[in-house]
Design brief:
Elements (H helix, E strand, L loop, with lengths): L15 H8 L23 E3 L7 E3 L11 E5 L10 E11 L5 E4 L7 E5 L9 H4 L7 E7 L11 E13 L6 E3 L9 E4 L5 E4 L10 E8 L9 E10 L5 E4 H4 L3 E4 L5 H7 L7 E6 L19 E10 L1
Antiparallel strand pairs: 1-2, 3-7, 4-5, 4-6, 4-8, 7-8, 9-12, 10-11, 12-16, 13-14, 13-15, 13-17, 16-17
Length: 311
Amino acid sequence: MTIIARKSGSKRLLGAMTALALCLGLSACGGKSDGGGHAGDTMQGVSASGKLGSKPDISFKTPFKVENQTHQVIQKGDGEVIRDGDRVCTRSLALDAKTGKVINSTWDQSSPECSIVISKKSIPAYYDTFKGLKVNSTVAVGIDESGSGSSKATESYIMALTFVSRSKNLTRAQGQKVTDLPSDLPKISLDDKGKPSLDLNGYQPKGGLVVQPLIKGKGAKVGQHQSVSANYTGWLASDGKQFDSSWDRGQASDFSLDQVVKGWQQGLAGQTVGSQVLLVVPPDLGYGSQQQQKIPANSTLIFVVDILAAY
């Protein structure tokens, strides 16, 4: 999902500690690896105590030898079962493998980190372990960056992830269809799966941002600085040519509203989960005078966005 980012190659902001733990499974980080990984191995020697679902006390003998992707369930939860396709929210502790000292914690943050979706594609190294756990479980994950050229003082970590909640992402917008649409807007039709098609309907952009809900969802409101999971399609307003669609990739896109074009941030903030929103984004809230892949300079863009989750 690069088209809607403010700059090519931009990545959405993840909770730093969860990103550290899971990037190894996604092959997105450097770090020492023997090529085969250790996704199926069991880490031994790490334990946790404390009330389930609360900040745990983590113990292991130091110095602890860390191997990437090794992991161990150190607390079995008592909540709902985590199933394939669930989005899970976590709290985490990072501990120096040499000293056992806590070097980072998300337990004091106002909200948990909810970027993990339980699927073989998104977390291949951890999928078989995470699926089937219960909420309030804690898993220790080994992270070793000593072979990545890292200049960090601490290069080997034990990450303790506690699963504090689960939910099921929508696959398409769900809610009440908006019937009193302005007649001069582009017309949108949906196929059986929910992918939108565009009829320009003679539309002539007037220069400002247009935000028009097509389906009003019943979920929570999206905050201005939250991350969302969405299915979307984008077209050029000049000729109606499609330039991007998550529907064609067969997978929704996750992104922070702080990392996308301003028209998306302004247009999606305040909308509700489950909604489908038509956005007409003028150049000054899009890419301006810069060409962006398939988007010519000074283009007005039309998007239809299904908001599937916010976190």
